[in-house]
Design brief:
Strand order of the largest sheet: 2-1-3-4-5-6
Distance between the termini: 44 Å
Bound molecules: S-adenosyl-L-homocysteine, iron/sulfur cluster, FE3-S4 cluster
Number of strands: 19
CATH class of one domain: Alpha Beta
Helix content: 25-40%
């Protein structure tokens, strides 16, 4: 009888992708994944520590596990991901009952480490960061599962050291996978029925910049755009400083490339952008947006924003609100600044009080809500091209898919639709999605 593994994933798409890979490794080791925590023989917690809240969530989940470990002392508990990298063996003290702590670069060593941990001889930590690494072949298999969309990791790490950010410390230096490997993986996924690929990296625009990879990012996008049977291509995340004209051009010429870009702005104030070490100005950002809209007038742009960075004045903050009104982002993830040692901003001595950060965050969210809702409302009465992913979360009688511009569309209609690109008549706008009905296959 196979053993059961429960996987909890926190954090970004990288972590989701890493969890998929670890699920593949575990299945090769005769572990079947389960949704039932109480019945699990192994629990793998893939953690994030990007902001204080993310870290708290991971610790709270680990706290919940104690009860299960008490009931079943043989329960194998593995902590993976960025918090594992950051805390290493300190986690064994902070959260007793763990067997194995494994950083993001240690994933491919999971089989040997797990076998060793199963012998129960000692607690194991694997968190060395290498400077240059040959990325292991991807072990993920869809196991005959019908999946319409898939992530493909094209690079790992980050060299940017934005002053607030912990990622360069926990994910190590930038390293790009060979383009041939990436194409092979994508062709394989398309053969298994995948219709949409999202390329992943902390900063995809610097793909291949260090002589690795085999080509630059725009070239990679062009090559992938030619893969037979691939309907849609997306990528995330783009750093504005490295968004080249060559890549911008791709939005006008590569058919599968969807009309959406996630382009984190962080702040609309030059003074704050400088202190964040972002290496672009407000005008640079606006110029890139203008170029994108020039090539692709209906492109939807989403962003990340930080409220209450150290030293942010009311005037700096107003600059952020102002640029949000100018660009009219389709969506924004907004966060309250939090200290993430050893990131540089931890040493800035002009931190803002919690209530100020909170109040600014609320204003950011309120403005974005209004912009997103108005954008969604302007789509009512129009048609959207939707790639159907499966049943809608809210109603099993409705389908769910995404428009090319990335809005979630829930709609009614008959047929076996998952994996198909259909036309939907948009009838209603909600805050986070659109509603409609099938208007053609
Ligand atoms: N590599 C991506 C994003 C990584 S983290 C990029 O460069 O855009 C996702 C978002 O978390 C960041 O864009 C930023 O808005 C936010 N973030 C990162 N560190 C933070 C911190 N210390 N406090 C608040 N928000 C933070
Ligand atoms: Fe963090 Fe900046 Fe790297 Fe993004 S580009 S992961 S925000 S250091
Ligand atoms: Fe979190 Fe690590 Fe991603 S810190 S946001 S899981 S890269």
């Amino acid at each position: 009888m196979s053993k059961k593994a429960y996987i909890a994933t926190f954090g970004c798409q990288m972590n989701e992708h890493d969890s998929e890979q670890m699920a593949g490794i575990l299945s090769n080791m005769a572990y079947e994944t389960t949704e039932d925590l109480a019945g699990a023989d192994l629990v793998l917690v893939n953690t994030c520590c990007i902001r204080q809240k993310a870290e708290e969530k991971a610790y709270s989940f680990l706290g919940r596990l104690r009860r299960f470990k008490k009931k079943n002392p043989d329960l194998m508990v593995i902590v993976a991901g960025c918090l594992a990298q950051q805390e290493g063996s300190r986690l064994f003290k902070k959260s007793p009952g763990l067997n194995l702590v494994i950083g993001p670069q240690g994933i491919h060593r999971l089989p040997e480490l797990l076998r060793e941990a199963e012998k129960n001889v000692r607690k194991i930590t694997c968190t060395e960061l290498t400077t240059s690494q040959e990325l292991p072949g991807h072990v993920r298999s869809l196991n005959g599962k019908r999946t319409v969309t898939a992530y493909v990791s094209i690079m790992t790490g980050c060299n940017n050291f934005c002053s607030y950010c912990i990622v360069p410390y926990v994910r190590g230096r930038e390293f790009s996978r060979r383009s041939g490997e990436i194409l092979k993986e994508i062709r394989g996924l398309v053969e298994q029925g995948v219709r949409e690929i999202t390329l992943l990296g902390q900063n995809v625009n610097s793909y291949g910049l260090h002589g690795d990879g085999g080509c630059g990012f725009a070239d990679l996008v062009r090559k992938i755009g030619e893969v037979d049977g691939l309907d849609r291509l997306r990528f995330t995340t783009s750093h504005p400083k490295d968004l080249s004209d060559d890549l911008i051009e791709c939005f006008g010429s590569i058919k599968p490339l969807c009309e959406h870009i996630h382009l984190p702005m962080q702040s609309g104030s030059d003074r704050i952008l400088k202190r964040m070490n972002r290496k672009y100005t407000r005008d640079d950002y606006l110029e890139k947006v203008a170029k994108l809209k020039g090539v692709c007038p209906h492109i939807s742009i989403t962003t990340d924003l930080i409220a209450g960075f150290p030293g942010e004045t009311e005037a700096d903050f107003e600059d952020t609100l102002d640029i949000m009104r100018q660009v009219r982002f389709a969506g924004a993830f907004a966060f309250k600044y939090s200290d993430r040692p050893p990131a540089k901003a931890v040493t800035f001595n002009d931190k803002l009080p919690e209530p100020v950060k909170q109040e600014r965050l609320s204003r950011l969210l309120a403005l974005q809500k209004e912009i997103t809702y108005n954008r969604n409302k302007s789509m009512v009465g129009k048609r959207a091209e939707v790639l159907v992913e499966g049943y809608s979360k809210s109603s099993p009688r409705e389908w769910m898919g995404r428009a090319r511009t990335n809005e979630v569309v829930n709609f009614s209609g008959d047929g076996d639709l998952p994996g198909k690109v259909v036309t939907v008549a948009v009838e209603k706008a909600c805050l986070h999605s659109l509603k409609g009905s099938l208007a053609g296959e």
